[in-house]
Automatic annotation (TrEMBL):
One of its GO terms (biological process) is glutathione metabolic process. One of its GO terms (molecular function) is glutathione transferase activity. Keywords: Transferase. GO terms for cellular component: cytoplasm. Residues 3-82 form the GST N-terminal domain. It comes from the Eukaryota. It comes from Dillenia turbinata. Pfam families: GST_C, GST_N. Belongs to the GST superfamily. The keyword Transferase applies. It catalyses: RX + glutathione = an S-substituted glutathione + a halide anion + H(+). Its EC number is 2.5.1.18. This is glutathione transferase. Residues 87-220 form the GST C-terminal domain.
Amino acid sequence: MAEEVKLFKTWSSPYGLRAVWALKLKGIEYEAIDEDLANKSSQLLQYNPVHKKIPVLVHNGKPIAESLVIVEYIDETWKQNPILPQDPYERAMARFWAKFGDDKVLPSIWGWFTKQGKEQEELLQQATENLKFLEQQLEGKVFFGGEKIGLVDIALGFLANLICILEEVSGLELITKEKFPLLFGWMQNFAAIPMIKETFPPHEKMIPKYVALREKYLPPVVPPK
Ligand SMILES: N[C@@H](CCC(=O)N[C@@H](CS)C(=O)NCC(=O)O)C(=O)O
């Protein structure tokens, strides 16, 4: 029986990209359905009634939500090109660092991008501390997964696309070659993989999107009296 694989995503979502990368790594054909999150489809609401978010993978009619859950499902369903390590301890560590990306790295970077003044300085400190942990994880490795990309690379891959956009829009620097040589090199290596590069949302569309997002979240500037 032909497999039915559908992926509900958006053109720009870093979470959606995780599922795209996992499917591509496995060589699985799928139908991509780009959602308008301002006007969610009834199918999305039916498939992910709990969070009402993308991505959702639908495999032979069965929906799976949450990007990291989807990536693990893909890895367990199609065995070629493993994403998670075989060793139980290494698997646990990969899950730990992937979760660290969502729990700590992403919120601190988002805060740094959308705040100003003292609050922003504090978030920069938090983000720097988190990024230092990632830098340590890359010692002696090309990718977080070693010689090949794995779960942590897929979980954090959004950094390779998004950081330069956040830096350009804010006019600030976050991940420089001087401060984070290994992470900087990893971003370049990851972004250079043809299968990854071709999926990155276009820079010229991302810039206005993130300019608008920053304006939405930044507090209004009060003119001095
Ligand atoms: N933890 C979720 C986060 C997914 C997520 O935040 N998706 C956003 C798009 S980037 C979304 O669908 N937002 C719609 C909403 O919040 O209404 C995952 O890893 O899949």
